[in-house]
Amino acid sequence: MTADARRLHLALQKSGRLADYSRQLLRDAGLRIQDGKNDLAARVENFPADLMFVRDDDIPTFVGDGVCDFGIVGENVLREFVLGRPDARIEVAARLGFGRCSLRIAAPETARYDGAETLAGARIATSYPFIVRDFLARRGIAADVVKMSGAVELAPRLGIAPFVCDLVSTGATLEANGLRAVETVLESEAVLIRTLAPAGEGAAALGGQLMSRLEGVLATRDSKYIMLNASGEALKRITDLLPGAEAPTILPLHGRPGHFAVHAVCQESVFWETLQALKQAGASAILVVPIEKMML
Ligand code: ATP
Ligand code: ZN
Questions:
Q1: Which residues sit with Cβ closer than 5 angstroms to ligand 2, an ion?
Q2: How far is the CA of 58 from the centre of ligand 1 (A)?
Q3: Which atom of ligand 1 lies closest to the CA of 190?
Q4: Is the C-beta atom of 188 inside 6 A of ligand 1?
Q5: In sequence order, which residues have a C-beta less than 8 Å from that of residue 87 and are 6 or more positions away?
Q6: Whole domain around residue 162: which residue ranges?
Q7: Same domain for 248 and 261?
Q8: Is 227 helix (H, G, I), strand (E, B) or coil?
């Protein structure tokens, strides 16, 4: 394969909780995804990359084998895969901030629970046997882990196991099944993973370009540009209040000696409370504007 023929391969979830967010992230990075007939793959029109739409469980395999250069998957799926294949050639390239959920052990609402030791000798049904065994091993607890590929929350009612370990976001599903969470095993969010398998010629440079675009999008998601006016005496107090701003620009105001304009990129959310505090510290004419693009 010649260097100029190399296209990156990206594995995304075909449909499900991560599918829309994953595509949107790529669109925000300026990638135009071709609307083709084929729902298993798509070409990016303005960047040398092809997308493959697969089940999330297959994404670590594709990336680990180097079939795909990048993939987007939940940390829960990644961790389960890596615990089963410790030599997997995968690295986490970025945390993406969506698909947040936690993997929790739950027990019937009526059952007694006095800490993790209660699990000793019990059965736990889960789709994440490696993660659960690892959790138990770290605490020196011996329990029986039963793998189920779905409908895990039915296990207690079916008499399969008194405990379950499953993904929870609001807890509504647990509650609907008469269960309550008793332990948190893993907090998870979607991550961008990257292959460590030898990639073809040109892949490293393309990967670098893709990463810098994605990092730009992730950095701007919570970032805001703040502009305000302040007197010289108030500057220190005000710049201390700016959330996540490294080096604000300070410019003298024309015709108002001792007064300055402060401009800063804030890398964290700017709340009304922050604006209130800035005003109290002596800031005036405060403007907060969104940032569309940023290259770090
Ligand atoms: P696939 O068909 O691709 O195998 P799936 O049914 O395994 O899909 P989804 O239910 O779409 O997976 O969930 C994908 C990922 O979304 C999960 O692995 C997890 O990282 C994340 N997620 C976020 N919130 C939740 C939740 N409440 N329940 C389950 N997964 C969640
Ligand atoms: Zn899945």
A1: 56-57
A2: 13
A3: 20
A4: yes
A5: none
A6: 101-187
A7: yes
A8: strand
| Neighbouring C-beta atoms of residue 205, cutoff 10 Å | 11
Residue 223: pLDDT band (50, 70, 90) is confident
User: Does the C-beta of 17 come closer than 6 Å to ligand 1?
Assistant: yes
For ligand 2, the distance from its centroid to the CA atom of residue 216, given in whole angstroms, is 29
- Domain membership flag for residue 2: no
User: Which CATH number is 75's domain given?
Assistant: 3.40.190.10
Across 157-161, average pLDDT? 95
Q: Is 60 in the pocket of ligand 1 (CB under 6 A)?
A: no
Q: Do the beta carbons of residue 231 and residue 105 sit within 8 Å?
A: no
Q: Is 74 in the pocket of ligand 1 (CB under 6 A)?
A: yes
Which residue's CA is minimally distant from atom 22 of ligand 1?
99
* H/E run at residue 12: strand 8-13
Q: Which atom of ligand 1 is nearest to the CA of 19?
A: 11
Q: What's the pTM value of the predicted model, to 2 decimals?
A: 0.86
Q: Last residue of a domain, which of 136, 169, 187?
A: 187
Same domain? 172 vs 194:
no
Out of 44-53, 105-114, 115-124, 267-276, pick the least confident: 267-276
Residue 55 CA: which ligand is closest? 1
How far, in Å, CA of 267 to CA of 224, rounded?
7
DSSP one-letter code for 198: P
Q: State the closest ligand 1 atom to the C-alpha of 57, by its place in the atom list counted from 1.
A: 4
Lowest mean pLDDT among 148-152, 171-175, 285-289: 171-175
Of 32-46, 119-133, 236-250, 266-280, give the range with the top mean pLDDT.
Answer: 119-133
Cβ atoms of 83 and 58 closer than 8 Å: no
Among 36-45, 103-112, 284-293, where is mean pLDDT lowest? 36-45
